[in-house]
Amino acid sequence: MRVVLIGGTSNSGKSTVAEALAERLGFEHRSTDGLARHPGRPWRTPEREVPPHVAEHYATLTADELIASVLAHYEGLRPRIEELITDRALTGAPGLVLEGSALWPGWVARLAVPRTAAVWLTADDAVVRDRVRAAGRYEEATEEERLLMDRFLARTGRYQALMVDAVEALGLDRVDSGDGRTAAELADAVLAAVDLQERPGR
Q1: Count of beta carbons in the 10 Å neighbourhood of residue 12
Q2: pTM of the full predicted structure?
Q3: How far is CA 174 from the centre of its chain?
């Protein structure tokens, strides 16, 4: 394998596991978020305020509109992602662990790029909710800030449900990242799935 793809919903542990896996393999770690950013996470951090357009995005769109918006964004990224995967798999460039929610199972399953493997991370909705609320300091947040986080969580849960349905329908591999295993243990689980994998890109 020269490219390992790790998909999953937001806050499923993709970045942490991908970083551990890349270090193990001596590969580069990249995120699809670095190619183009959809409205980001709608909660404050010590380093970052929520931009007005991000707050408006989550405050004004319904859950169905939010999921449609993010899926359209990911579809728009697909040609660039496929080009990156193909370049790393075929040119002798350094290996790559690429993670991101933009790695949608439907088109990844159709990849005809050799030496490429893919695994999706999942976590119970309660695990994702607790991670988001901890990151956004939900208990200390205002009512408006909580609303934005709740809308984000609604979109995240809907995305994961659709993603899991697609993964299972296509017979792809997924790993539960919310069962208390360490990043190193989850990297082991991803590698075990990769070793047995016949799709995609074999």
Answers
A1: 29
A2: 0.93
A3: 12
